[in-house]
Structure formats: C-alpha cells, structure tokens
What we know:
By secondary structure, the protein is α+β, with helices and mostly antiparallel strands. The protein has six helices and ten strands. Helix 1 runs antiparallel to helix 2 (about 40-65) and helix 3 (about 70-95) crosses helix 4 (about 105-130). About 15% of the residues are buried.
Amino acid sequence: MNGGLLGNVVVRNGLGLLALLAVHYVSDQYHLAQREGFDRFSPYLFLLLLYGWIVLHNRLLFERLYLRGRKKAYFAWLALALGVASFNTHYILRTGFGVTRTLPHIVSFWVYTLTGLGVYVIFRYLQTARTPAEGATVPAGPAPTEPGPAREAAFFQCVADGTPQTIPLDHILYLESLENYVKVITGPKTYLTRLTLKEAEARLPKPPFLRISRSHIVNQAHIRRTEPDAVQVGTASLRIGKIYKRYVEEQLAGK
C-alpha cells in the first residue's frame, strides 16, 4: 500500500488532514451546537490553515534546509515564521474573538508544529525501513565483454524524498555525510538519503570509490586534481582527513 495510495503525496496529505479534523470533531461535537454563524466552523478553518503550515514547514523548511545541512538558515526561518504566526494568532484572538488569554492557543500552535514534524520524521523512517535492503538487490549492469570476474552492480540504490532511486555509479561524483543522512552528488542532481556514510561505503565498489575523510567518499574517475590535503571533484574541493591521508595517497598512487 505504501507504493500505491500512500505513495501519492496528495492522497497522503488528504488523509492526514481528514484525520486531524476528525479527531478535533470528536471532542468538539458537544460544543458545536452552542456556537452560531461563522464561529461554528472557524476552528476547522484554523485547522486547515494549521495543516497547510505543517506541510510547508516539513517539506520546505525541514527537508530543504535542515536535512541538507543548512541548519542556521532553517532555525532562522522557523523562528521568523513562528514569531509572525504567533503574533497574528494573538492579534486575531484578541480583536476578533475577545480572547484575553491567548498564550495557551499559541503554545498549542507550537505543539501542533512539533507533533506534525514528529509524525513526518517517523513516516520517513518507516518508509525507508520498509524498502528492502535499499541497495542489497540492485539491477545488474551490462554483461562483461571480457573474460574474468563478473562486473559489480553498476547502480547505487537509495530512497530520496520518499522515492526509490537507482543511480548509475559512474554518474556519482562524491558522497557527503550529514549525520544520519548522506548526500549523493551527481552531475545534474543531488539526492538525500537516510544512510550513514559507513553504510553507503559498504555498498560501493572499491575502486573506484575512495573514502577520503569522515565526511566524504569520492569517485576516483571524477577526480580532476589532487593536492597535498585535498582533491578536486567536479567543482568541489574536498579536504582529505588526517587519518585517511596515507591511505588515500596509496590508493591514488595505484590508480
């Protein structure tokens, strides 16, 4: 089912919104008849807007900034968004609804934001965990044209943005560690997948892939220039870690 209905972002978010409205209605149905006019349905409009903010936060701020290593930018935008939204909530509740104690409502808004983030992170984790071996079973490359050992698989499989990806190994320039995530940098595109660099290293053939530091694995076929303490891969200059330096020199010397 994960690859069917739940694989569709519109269906998934529609079900999430319906669940949020249904949970609120269970506790609100006894008070619904006591409200009149717009006040009867205003909480549900608020929930609709709140869900839109949660999706915006998770997909745009958290995924595009935090998970890609731009943590300072993420926290700056989050603080700005929460500050503006909290002020608007306070103003609307005070002037439009005559609510004097607005802090509980503002705190609820923050809690909803954190809860939505938690659900999103759990969903991503479960989705990644359900993908079988995430690279243990990969499509075989073309049959070898010369006698000798069978060629290693020519692809690297991962899950990026909730979608299984099959990346040709010769397209990969380098991999970069982001704690429990890895960025796979190719020429035209960058993929973000939930792996440690050690796990990614175990799935890559050696050569041509070479670990040069705690943060980077490079494809030797794309090294443009070597320096005493760095290698240039594409347009990026990547430092060689001190404990890897001798190993890297030996591997590059036998390249």
